[in-house]
Each structure stands twice: as structure tokens, then as C-alpha cells.
Specification:
The chain is of the alpha+beta class and about 240 residues long. It has 7 helices and 17 strands. It has 2 domains: about 60 residues, Structural Genomics Hypothetical 15.5 Kd Protein In mrcA-pckA Intergenic Region, Chain A (Roll), CATH 3.10.290.10; about 160 residues, Pseudouridine synthase (2-Layer Sandwich), CATH 3.30.2350.10. The strands form 4 sheets. Strands 7, 8, 9, 10, 13, 14, 15, 16 and 17 form a 9-stranded mixed β-sheet that branches. Strands 3-2-5-6 form a 4-stranded antiparallel β-sheet. A two-stranded antiparallel ribbon has the order 1-4. The protein starts with 13 loop residues before the first strand and ends in a 5-residue tail after the last helix. The N terminus is likely disordered.
Length: about 240
């Protein structure tokens, strides 16, 4: 999986050749030739190879304004039990072969093989790190079922934090559903965090399902099915990512 692209941050702008090629009119190499020949302008000024494009800039090639195409793909998938969130095709349970999408995509984060529910997939590596970075505090909501009934002390401890992998988990929100099931909202992403938290308190998770990632909800999406994100979902999800 590719990480964030330092060429494409809001503060540093986008390299001009990348901007021109992303309009679909030519390759990056051809864009370099257009720039070198003086055919590309930014805000009416002839650009050079080192130029960068920032929000609000107008780019013209041979006097015609260009706008990059957005070919990014974002889908929501209701992952079944037994599917592994890996792009390694050698793993027979890999999520890529299961979905069999026509273009190259990869999961944003992961769900354990024995967990189910919402996982997002994309072909846009530029935004993955920002969406997963713990300090951004993005919410992930789960429905969790335990092997036996819990009590008020369990809810209090889960809410306030417990030791996991050598550090305390952040305070979180926990909502009882029934005697063995609860909803929990996490704002960090430690490895197998919910299962480890429950194990520390003497309980075993028998079922774990993610129902929300930031603003994207699983809703009534059938198990094993996927859908494209709506324009409004993408706008909210990517807010601050560019």
C-alpha cells in the first residue's frame, strides 16, 4: 500500500507536471516537454519544470484552462468473517480476490479475519495515512458481543481506559445493547484493541462488527457486498485530507 504523497499536500502544492498529466491530456513525461517548451502557464505566467500548483491557481496549456480529473475510487464493503484485509494474492482469503473489483484498490486500515463489518477500499494512496493517523482522532464504531454478561464496572473500565500493549487506551464511549453486547466508539487504532481491552478485564469477544468509520455507516449493506461512496460521503470523509 502506498503512503501519503509529499507532492500533493495543501501547504506544498502539487508539482506542475503531475497536475497537467492528471488532467488526462498526457503523461508526466509529455507534460515536462510542454512545460519546457513554454506552453504551460500558471495564473497567466509562463511556468517552469519546478513550478507547483496551489489551491485557487489557474493552469493553462496552449491558452486553454485544464482541470485534473478525479479518478479516485472509494467503496464501502461489508466484510464477512474469514476474509483477510490484505492485498497479498497468495493468501487465499485476501479481500482483493473476494471483491474482484475491476481496478486496483486496497483497504484503508484493516479488520481482523474473525471480525466483520465496514471496511473502506480505495485506489488513492495519498489519503490513507491521514485517515488512519491516531492523532487525528477519527471515530470508528463497533458492536461487540462477549462470552458472558458484563456489569457496570466493565463499562466504566472500558470507557476510562485499560492497559494495552504497554500503554493506556484513550477514554472512549461505550453504550450497552444487552447483557452481553455493547457499542463502542474508538478514536485510536491499536492492534486488536477491543479484543485486548476485553481480555484484560476477563472477557472474551465472541463477535465484533464495525458499523461506522468516521462519517461512513454500514447501514443495511448486505454481508459480502460493496457500494460506492456518495459524493457527500466522500466530501465529508476527505475534509482536510488534501
Amino acid at each position: 500500500m502506498s503512503g501519503s504523497d509529499p507532492e500533493n499536500t495543501a501547504s506544498e502544492g502539487v508539482r506542475l507536471n503531475k497536475y497537467v498529466s492528471s488532467s488526462g491530456m498526457c503523461s508526466r513525461r509529455e507534460a515536462d516537454r510542454l512545460i519546457e517548451s513554454g506552453k504551460v502557464k500558471i495564473n497567466g505566467v509562463t511556468a517552469d519544470l519546478g513550478s507547483r500548483v496551489f489551491d485557487g491557481d489557474t493552469v493553462e496549456v496552449d491558452g486553454k484552462p485544464i482541470v485534473p480529473e478525479d479518478n479516485s475510487i472509494y467503496i464501502a464493503f461489508n466484510k464477512p468473517l474469514g476474509v483477510t484485509c490484505t492485498t497479498d494474492r497468495r493468501d487465499p482469503s485476501n479481500i482483493i480476490d473476494y471483491i474482484a473489483f475491476k481496478e486496483r484498490i486496497f483497504p484503508i486500515g484493516r479488520l481482523d479475519k474473525n471480525s466483520s463489518g465496514l471496511i473502506l477500499l480505495t485506489n488513492n494512496g495519498d489519503i490513507v495515512n491521514g485517515l488512519l493517523r491516531s492523532e487525528n482522532g477519527h471515530e470508528k464504531e463497533y458492536v461487540v458481543t462477549l462470552d458472558r454478561p458484563y456489569d457496570g464496572k466493565f463499562i466504566k473500565n472500558m470507557s476510562s481506559g485499560v492497559p494495552v500493549l504497554g500503554r493506556m487506551t484513550l477514554p472512549t464511549e461505550v453504550f450497552p445493547v444487552n447483557s452481553k453486547t455493547f457499542r463502542i466508539i474508538l478514536r485510536q487504532g491499536m492492534n486488536r484493541q477491543i479484543r485486548r481491552m476485553c481480555e484484560y478485564l476477563g472477557y472474551r469477544v465472541t463477535k465484533l462488527k464495525r458499523i461506522r468509520f468516521i462519517n461512513i455507516e454500514l447501514g443495511d449493506l448486505e454481508v459480502g457486498k460493496w457500494r460506492y461512496l456518495t459524493a457527500e460521503e466522500k466530501k465529508e470523509l476527505l475534509k482536510g485530507m488534501k
